[in-house]
Amino acid sequence: MPADTVALVAGKGSKSSGGGPGGSYWHIHVGEQRAGKIFINVIDESPLGQHASIQIFLNQRSQGRRIGRVAYRLACEACGYDTVYAHMRKSNVASRRAAEEAGFVADETPGHTQLVMVWRRG
C-alpha cells in the first residue's frame, strides 16, 4: 500500500473515541474509500497515569494491506502530543507489527496487563 494513498480526515468522534478533552478522531481513507478510524484519548490508567492513548480500527477488507502502520504514524504526527501509547492484546501480532513500523517500541513499565507500546516525537 503506497503511503501517499492513505489519508486521515478529521472527524468529531464521541466522548470515548477521541471526542473528549484532549482527544482527536480521524477517519482513515485510502483514496476515496473509508478504511477505518483512528483516535486518541487522554486516559488516566495505572501504571502510566494520565497519557495519550491511540486506538485504531480498520474495516475487515482494509486489514493486512499496510494501512494501519501509515495511519498510526500520521495520527501521532498530527496529534500534537510528544508521547503516545498504544494498548493492545499481547496476541495481536498484526497491530504490534503495524505500531512498530510506525515508530512505536514496547513499553517495559512493570504492571501492564496488555502489551503497551510507546511512540515519541523526534
From TrEMBL:
Protein name per Swiss-Prot or TrEMBL: GNAT family protein
Residues in N-acetyltransferase domain copies: 24-105
Source species, domain of life: Bacteria
Cell membrane is among the record's keywords: no
EC numbers for this chain: 2.-.-.-
Class of the enzyme per the UniProt entry, highest EC level: transferase
GO MF assignments: acyltransferase activity, transferring groups other than amino-acyl groups
Keywords attached to this entry: Transferase
Lineage, opening ranks: Bacteria, Pseudomonadati, Pseudomonadota, Alphaproteobacteria, Rhodospirillales
Organism of origin: Azospirillum brasilense
